[in-house]
């Protein structure tokens, strides 16, 4: 044996888990660019999942199918509504070793993102939404670009927040209102919660409540907006990598 591990008396290097990043509403996978780049530099396989944002059941099914295609251990990361999706998608998947919530919804069965956002005072999500009626009678929801910076991404430079605002993907109103209908994965899979201390979409009090209920390991990022993963990518990566070890 000639490897460094062999010379040191250790076994073969442990395979790093695949980090699967699941974006929330009003976003897409490109928002994770800085986080994904750092994880890749540190040797982790990374997938930024395309969350359809059409309905909790169908969104979770799409992510569940992606997870089934991955060999080996997985650390599943969800931001905002993405937390709702991963909590359902990971149920029953033995390869998912940890759930990481980034300023995210962590529902119990029967709870929706819409209900959880209003459980504690301080959310501006209602006043921030711009609805677009659809021909089928449904509605797509956007964050009003005029309010995106102050309410969604307050700790990002205005120019960068403006780019996120104009490239955001809408969420179907039905998705945010659909309650979790299956057992939630956080009951059986260890979880970790990065709390955004100045979040104006999911109030920090709501984040603490959900993290405590799930018995998550937590870290508070003081002054961080709802887009904590974009404004604080180094802190976010360090938090994810702790969960991956």
TrEMBL record:
InterPro entries linked: AB_hydrolase_1, AB_hydrolase_fold, Sec-Metab_Biosynth_Hydrolase
Gene Ontology terms, MF aspect: hydrolase activity
Q: Which UniProt keywords apply?
A: Hydrolase
Q: Give start and end of each AB hydrolase-1 domain.
A: 19-238
Has the keyword Aminoacyl-tRNA synthetase been applied to this entry?
no
What's the protein here called? Alpha/beta hydrolase
Q: What organism is recorded for this protein?
A: Paractinoplanes lichenicola
């Amino acid at each position: 044996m000639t490897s460094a591990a062999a010379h040191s008396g250790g076994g073969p290097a442990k395979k790093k888990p695949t980090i699967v990043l699941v974006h929330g509403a009003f976003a897409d996978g490109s928002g994770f660019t800085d986080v994904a780049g750092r994880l890749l530099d540190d040797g982790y396989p990374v997938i930024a999942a395309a969350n359809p944002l059409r309905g909790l059941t169908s969104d979770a099914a799409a992510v569940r199918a992606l997870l089934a295609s991955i060999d080996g251990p997985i650390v599943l990361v969800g931001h905002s509504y993405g937390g709702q999706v991963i909590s359902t998608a990971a149920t029953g998947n033995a390869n998912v070793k940890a759930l990481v919530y980034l300023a995210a919804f962590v529902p119990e069965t029967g709870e929706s993102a819409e209900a959880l956002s209003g459980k504690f005072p301080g959310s501006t999500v209602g006043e921030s939404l711009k609805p677009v009626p659809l021909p089928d009678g449904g509605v797509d929801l956007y964050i009003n670009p005029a309010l995106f910076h102050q309410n969604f991404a307050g700790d990002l430079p205005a120019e960068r927040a403006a780019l996120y605002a104009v490239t955001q993907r809408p969420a179907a109103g039905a998705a945010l209102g659909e309650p979790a209908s299956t057992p939630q994965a956080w009951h059986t899979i260890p979880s970790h919660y990065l709390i955004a201390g100045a979040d104006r979409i999911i109030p920090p009090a709501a984040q603490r409540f959900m993290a405590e209920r799930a018995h998550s390991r937590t870290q508070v990022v003081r002054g961080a907006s709802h887009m904590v993963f974009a404004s604080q990518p180094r802190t976010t990566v360090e938090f994810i990598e702790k969960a991956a070890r």
